[in-house]
Design brief:
The complex is a heterodimer of chains A (268) and B (260).
Chain A lengths: L4 H38 L8 H14 L1 H33 L1 H15 L7 H8 L3 H25 L3 H9 L4 H38 L5 H10 L3 H29 L10
Chain B lengths: L7 E10 L6 E11 L4 E5 L6 H9 L6 E6 L2 E2 L7 E4 L11 H11 L4 H14 L15 H14 L4 E5 L7 H18 L2 E5 L3 H7 L2 E6 L4 E7 L8 H4 L2 H21 L1
Parallel strand pairs in B: 3-8, 3-9, 6-7, 7-8
Antiparallel strand pairs in B: 1-2, 1-4, 4-5, 9-10
Helix pairs in contact in B: 2-3, 2-4, 3-4, 6-8
The chains are: A mainly alpha (268), B alpha/beta (260).
The structure holds adenosine-5'-triphosphate and magnesium ion.
Magnesium ion binds next to helix 1 of chain B.
Keywords (chain B): ATP-binding, Nucleotide-binding, Transport
InterPro entries (chain B): AAA+_ATPase, ABC_transporter-like_ATP-bd, ABC_transporter_ATP-bind, P-loop_NTPase
Family (chain B): Belongs to the ABC transporter superfamily.
């Protein structure tokens, strides 16, 4: 942009160095962690499988296709539940933020269900929805919906009044204000809600699979536990962590793209 | 300024916020006429109801009793005939500078080409042409304020309501924008109601200075500024200017001292 010509020249190299040192520290931290793990198992201090054993099991499970099937099953549940939950949460959140009556009617229910851990709904969901995919997806849907609805609603009520007034004096009707002020102004909040929602959906799916499933990463761990198969448990845990991290990064990237106009404190 | 019909008229306007024991009188029985094409500045201690009075003309705040008329019709709500520049800049941070300026034009259904052209014209006027594609977060306070001015001008309102528009700016930018405001005014003679804390500024740009008193907010004094237009450095340094300035200062200061 035209805004800062001379700064733009100096920035890249400094940014590059900062980025490089960040990467170096991360690598160092990672290598140290694995090293400590290896030491602990090598010296016989712990009954955990060594990094090497886990890696071998991971390759084995990947080659046989088992790992991919498990990942796919878990991801499918999360994505269906999360997308349905968020799709419903956004309009409901807007409704609550915009109309007082809607807020008064819906909010007590949201607050009530929010304090119930989603997993506690599982027994009820299994009894009423059967033992197939439905109860799991429903529970994830609920987890994603509840966190997204609250943040959307928060976003709408915290839109600065002066933005609304500024639009009104320029001739904006309520409809225009909603579409062109309320929605963009609350986008940052909504995306934070998505991030939290996706996190809690992921946590919920794994736990749900531990309790009641015939597939998925949680189910695999539960099976491995029966046979005292520690390496498989490790592989599943690592897969859960990596997938969770990737999904979180995707939302963060989307957030950065959609709300780049925001003034924010830089934290690196 | 003895026009037949005032552009803006406050008729015994009172504004009370809240009710019961918590009721607070922000304005009491304000009666004031502002002529078409007149520049009126409003000064007074903090909390004396300056913004409240302006919001009433803008249609953003309703009166409790009395009536506020613009063009002889009672104000019912906001409209693009009255442009407002807010104490906080109130630019939309999610829109670029030019999209901010175009906002009101788009609502009027003006075609894209013309919209661009008009927005560019006003951006040039306030010296922000090169920043058309920038987002507000990359602008300085003064640039944001100038963008807000361009946005208000672009819809071509017949009344401009400005709430301490130059309050946050450095002295030099401030003087520049004052001259720019007067320059623009000399071409189109809009009616301007301008709120400020700065007594020099109030005298420099105005036909009349309205001094409000606080607790409760009410009219204290109206001071005519009999200085020639165009206003310039010479006027600013003249003994007549100093005299009027002192008069306004005394009107504001006496009351503040009394209230304290
Ligand atoms: N929405 C509101 N609800 C309750 N009280 C209000 C409201 N808006 C303003 N007031 C009160 O009315 C009084 C006048 O406020 P106003 O904003 O008009 O003052 P002002 O003269 O513009 O002050 P400043 O110079 O600090 O901007 C203040 O005491 C304020 O607390
Ligand atoms: Mg004010």
């Amino acid at each position: 942009m035209i805004v800062s010509n001379e700064v733009a020249v100096a920035e890249p190299s400094r940014d590059c160095v900062a980025h490089l040192s960040r990467v170096l520290w991360s690598v160092l931290s990672f290598v140290t962690g694995i090293g400590l793990w290896w030491l602990a198992t090598f010296s016989g201090l712990s009954v955990l499988p060594s990094p090497w054993t886990v890696l071998m099991r991971m390759i084995e499970l990947a080659v046989s296709g088992q790992l991919w099937l498990d990942m796919f099953a878990s991801l499918r549940r999360v994505l269906i539940g999360f997308i349905l939950g968020s799709l419903l949460a956004v309009p409901v959140g807007f409704l609550m933020g915009w109309y007082r009556i809607a807020r008064l009617v819906i909010d007590p229910w949201v607050q009530f269900f929010r304090v119930i851990p989603p997993l506690a709904i599982i027994p009820l969901a299994i009894v009423t929805l059967g033992i197939d995919e439905k109860p799991k997806i429903f529970v994830i849907f609920l987890a994603a919906f509840l966190s997204s609805v609250v943040s959307t609603y928060q976003g709408v009520v915290s839109v600065d009044r002066t933005f609304i007034n500024a639009a009104r004096v320029l001739g904006a009707t309520d409809r225009v204000i909603f579409a062109q002020v309320i929605i963009p102004a609350s986008t940052p909040f909504i995306l934070v809600g998505f991030r939290i929602g996706l996190g809690s959906a992921w946590a919920t799916v794994v736990a749900a699979e531990l309790i009641a499933a015939q597939s998925g990463l949680g189910f695999r761990m539960q099976q491995a536990q029966l046979y005292y198969d520690l390496p498989t448990i490790f592989v599943s845990l690592i897969a859960i962590g990596i997938l969770g991290l990737i999904m979180d990064r995707i939302v963060v990237r989307a957030e950065e793209r959609l709300t780049h106009w925001q003034e924010r404190v830089r934290h690196d | 300024m003895t026009d037949v019909q005032p552009k803006i008229a406050f008729r015994h306007v009172s504004k009370i916020f809240g009710d019961g024991p918590k009721a607070f009188t922000a304005l009491r029985d304000l009666t004031l006429d502002i002529a078409d094409g007149e520049i009126v500045t409003v000064v007074g201690p903090s909390g004396c109801g300056k913004s409240t009075a302006m919001n009433i003309v803008a249609g953003l705040t309703s009166v409790s009793t009395g009536e506020c008329l613009v063009d002889n019709t009672s104000v019912k709500g906001p409209g693009p005939d009255r442009g407002v520049i807010f104490q906080q800049y109130a630019l939309f941070p999610w829109l670029t500078v030019i999209k901010n300026v175009e906002f009101g034009l788009r609502l009027q259904g003006i075609a894209r080409e013309e919209r661009r052209e008009r927005a560019m014209h006003y951006l040039e006027l306030v010296g922000l042409k090169e920043f058309a594609q920038a987002y507000p977060k990359t602008l300085s306070g003064g640039m944001k304020q100038r963008c807000a001015i361009a946005r208000a001008y672009a819809v071509n309102p017949s009344v401009l309501l400005m709430d301490e528009p130059f309050g946050a700016l450095d002295a030099l930018t401030r003087v520049k924008l004052q001259d720019q405001l007067l320059d623009t005014w000399s071409k189109d003679k809009r009616t301007i109601m301008f709120i400020t804390h700065d007594v020099d500024e109030a005298v420099y740009i105005a036909h009349r200075v309205v001094v409000l008193a606080a607790k409760p907010g009410r009219l204290q004094e109206i001071i005519d500024v009999d200085l020639p237009f165009p206003r310039n450095e010479e006027v600013r340094l003249s003994p007549e200017f100093t005299e009027i300035r002192n008069k306004v200062w005394r009107a504001v200061y006496d009351r503040s001292a009394e209230a304290a």
